[in-house]
UniProtKB/TrEMBL annotation:
Protein name in the entry: Nuclear transport factor 2 family protein
Pfam families: DUF4440
Organism: Tumidithrix elongata BACA0141
Every DUF4440 domain range: 9-117
Stretches that traverse the bilayer: none
InterPro entries: DUF4440, NTF2-like_dom_sf
Cross-referenced Gene3D superfamilies: 3.10.450.50
Amino acid sequence: MESTIKQQILEAEETLRQAMIRSDVEALNELISSELLFTDFLGQLVTKQQDLDAHASGAIKIDDIALTELQVLPVQETVAVVSVRVYITGSYNGNPASGNFRFTRVWSRSPQGTWHIIAGHCGTIA
């Protein structure tokens, strides 16, 4: 069971990565819980709608997300925690914004069997 959950989360993480690069708001909407609690690298709480709006408006433009580390910790049959180190290239509000970051995400599986991000945190890596 643990290996199945890990595989499902790895697939969800790749779907998320691709959706972020394409600013695919529809896919992001499916992956992110409406109850999302996400703290960005500035320590600000970001809602699902704020994240979707930033992608839809073009404020966030991601050219690439290169993974250098990814760990999945299944907690229960319906919860998993991910720690991932990434190098992101892109822009924010038209200004270049690239760097090394570590994300922690909590995924929860719905009664329908789909995985959604319910919480997350991002930090910069010096």
